[in-house]
Every structure is written in C-alpha cells, then in structure tokens.
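>> received
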Amino acid sequence: MILTDIIQAGNSSHDEINQLMVQLQERRINDKIRDTLIFVEHPEIVTVGRRGMLDNIQAPKGFASSDVDRGGGLTWHGPGQLVGYPIFKWKEESVRTVITKIEDWILSSLSLVNITGVRNEAMQGVWFNDYKIASIGLAFSKWVSRHGFDINLNTPDNRIESVEGCGLPIGKHTSLSKFGYDISIEQMQNLLIQTMPAILDREVANISNLENL
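>> returned
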C-alpha cells in the first residue's frame, strides 16, 4: 500500500493551487515528498487546455478564464464542485490505464451513496443519465501527474451548463444536485478517501490544511 498525504485546500484560487502543484510535482519527482492529493473547491473560473488554445477556443462572456498546460479544451471550475489533484508517481503502464483507474475510483465512490455512474467509451470521465458529471485531465512529468479530476456535486444554476467543456456541446455537463442528490464537498472527499485503498492501492498517511504547509 502506497502512503499518501492529503492537503485540504478549502476554497482556494486556481492560480494559487496551480503554483503549488508545480512545486509539489518537482518535489515528488525527486522523492522529497510522498504521493500527495490536493482537495479543493475553486472560485469560478474556466481553464483552457492546450487543445483549446490551439483551436483558439475561449471561455464564454461573463466567465473568468486561465490557460493551463493540461490537454483538452475548456473546463469549468467553481462552487459546488470538488476538485482533486493527485501528485502521484504512477506505476501503471499507460496514461489510459491511469485515467481508467481514476474513473473506477470516482464510480466506486459514488456507488457507496447509491449513484450508478457510467463511462463513455468515446471520452474520459464519468457520466450519469447521459450527462457528464466528472471530468479528468492530467499532465505528466517523469510519470508524476499534475492537474486532475473534478466531480460536480451542487454547482450554481446554468454555469457549468453554459460552457462547452471537453468539446461537448453546451448543456451536456451538469451537477448531481440536478437529479436530486445532496452530496457535500466534505462527504465526497470522505468517499474518495474510503475507496482509495481498494482502487488505487493507496492509504492516507497524513491530512493537513493548506495554511499548515
């Protein structure tokens, strides 16, 4: 079992956490820290990945945005969405295998509260009732990951639904609250921690807050 540290970053800006991820990735590459997982809920922002920048895709009017060095296009982040950033040194043989493991992790965690999510074989992430409720986007250096995944729990009305995230048309992303589920950020974190040993072969060594780093 791989020992893993968790940082609970609360409500922190994407820029602040992005800078922290860069630092932690370098330290993990050099084995100066253990595998580290950041949990955070960002103020609203739309990030633009490399494909989005190449295709000159921009966030809709009325949305703050930031360019990032993961793959993919637009991704909405904001209140009511749990974001997880695994700074992990993976042993899996391919990026696809890593993505599948994260999908399994989210699906297994949701099943504990009787939510049956599914995969879409055409694209990565987790779906529910034909809507995308979780997205995954990673960047690797020497097989240590940065960026991560998000799970839409109770997002504001018509915000994530108004963004063409992951190349999908407007309205294909939504939140579990739209189907009547009431899952808090803290509850979702605990579900992921509960299933992490079985799915990722990792167990929590330490949990700290961002201000205690």
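>> The first helix runs from residue 14 to 29.
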